[in-house]
Amino acid sequence: MNMDVEGADTGNGGDIALAGHRAGLLSRRSFLVGSAVGLGAFGLAGCATPDGMSLAEAEKVYGPVPEEKFPIPAVDVSKVDRKYYRRTVRYETKEEPGTIIVDPGKYYVYRIEGDGMATRYGANVGRDGFRWSGDAYVGRKGEWAVWTPPKEMIQRQPEAAKYARGMPGGLDNPLGARTLYLYQNGAYTLYTIYATSAPETIGSGITSGCVGLLSQDMIDLYDRTPVKTKVVVLPA
């Protein structure tokens, strides 16, 4: 992928230069062309949103995941537009259950469940000039994967050179907790679906082509996605 998360995979990483983590580290935010603007707080806790999930439910779904190798903190759901909360929706398609469909124009990722239904996740996607479309498949999967910046990125951003041999997995790693590596015709495309801990990026085009889901959503999708799963990326 050429994500600005960029991570050419030298066997380790997706092409991602993502949005923000901690100051002082080679943060995803330093790789972004711009950052998404945080959205305002929602109203009273427990009030149902137009999409059917209450704020209280969202806080539970996107709560902390302490049992992970690197414990994942709760999402600040006030930074996520309520329409991007995970939910089950009607989605008519001829694709088989289990197929992943990315709709970059609407900032959604769908997992087809069958019977005209799908699980829908909010996403960040490629920025202008870095979007792509077509069919692919999950060639491999990774948990807390090592991220290796591609040489092209190092040329543009010399500060990335310190990770030329790979950035170990962790909360500040651009690939996050889970990664699905997308392949075509037996070759890695350099594009991934990855986990982001930057809620303000959901619903924006900030990468060099990769697709990011909130960590809690990405874990849910990852656990239900075997290698060889078909992935359809729609035109933006």
TrEMBL record:
Gene Ontology CC, one term: extracellular region
Record flagged with keyword Cell wall biogenesis/degradation: yes
Domain of life (superkingdom): Bacteria
Pathway(s) per entry: Cell wall biogenesis; peptidoglycan biosynthesis
Domain L,D-TPase catalytic positions: 98-234
Gene3D superfamilies, per database record: L,D-transpeptidase catalytic domain-like
GO function terms (MF aspect): glycosyltransferase activity; peptidoglycan L,D-transpeptidase activity
GO terms for biological process, alphabetical: cell wall organization; peptidoglycan-protein cross-linking; regulation of cell shape
Keywords: Cell shape, Cell wall biogenesis/degradation, Glycosyltransferase, Hydrolase, Peptidoglycan synthesis, Transferase
InterPro entries assigned: LD-transpeptidase (IPR050979), LD_TPept_cat_dom (IPR005490), TAT_signal (IPR006311), TAT_signal_bac_arc (IPR019546), Transpep_catalytic_dom (IPR038063)
PANTHER family, per the entry: L,D-TRANSPEPTIDASE (PTHR30582), L,D-TRANSPEPTIDASE ERFK_SRFK-RELATED (PTHR30582:SF24)
Family listed: Belongs to the YkuD family.
Protein name: L,D-TPase catalytic domain-containing protein
